[in-house]
Design brief:
The chain is built from 4 helices and 2 strands, in the order αβααβα. Helix 2 (82-100) packs antiparallel against helix 3. The chain has a two-stranded antiparallel sheet with strand order 1-2. It has one domain (45-180). It is mainly alpha-helical.
Length: 181
């Protein structure tokens, strides 16, 4: 068997990895936005403003749903500057899209994590454009997080995505230093 005969297999494998990486990124973006916007539509239609609601009594010791209209950034900081943060979020998303082109396409954790960050950022940008504020509703009730600010699923997607990126970077760094040392 010559190397020319094995080349198409490598091309197919590389092509499959490319498709998988792009699909994982796009899928994470789409699912994050879809779930975020569906839950926010339900909250906007069903929950009163600033009143904690225990949708399921068994969940009440852990969390409630409290509808909050956030015109600032995370945790309600800098109220009234939502437009500025929408622009900054779009710049971050553009940066992620450009940055992804430099990454190994077969690092699926990395592409999935960046998809979550992108989807979460875009979910909150959609709120700022359509509502003029970000709709937050997840209100944690247990210690030590009982005083934690109300947040939404887009925020969660960003946090989970960043956490995966951090774990991935530490694992890669740990493997790299272990191999050289």
């Amino acid at each position: 068997m010559t190397s020319a005969e094995t080349l198409p297999v490598r091309e197919v494998t590389a092509s499959a990895a490319t498709v998988t990486g792009h699909l994982l990124y796009a899928g994470a973006v789409a699912v994050s936005i879809l779930i975020d916007q569906l839950t926010k539509a339900w909250v906007a239609a069903e929950l009163p403003l600033h009143q904690p609601v225990d949708v399921w009594s068994w969940l009440a010791p852990i969390l409630s749903f409290t509808r909050v209209e956030n015109t600032g950034v995370a945790f309600g900081l800098f109220p009234g500057l939502g437009g500025l943060f929408a622009v900054l979020s779009l710049l971050v998303v553009a940066g992620i899209v450009v940055f992804r082109r430099t990454l190994p396409i077969d690092d699926l954790w990395l592409h999935g994590a960046l998809g979550l960050v992108t989807g979460g950022a875009l979910g909150n940008v959609i709120d700022r454009v359509l509502r003029g504020h970000v709709l937050d509703f997840i209100d944690v009730n247990f210690w030590p997080f009982a005083q934690w600010p109300v947040f939404n699923l887009a925020d969660s997607a960003v946090v989970v995505g960043v956490a995966i990126l951090l774990v991935d970077s530490f694992l890669v760094e740990g493997l790299g230093s272990g191999a050289s040392g």
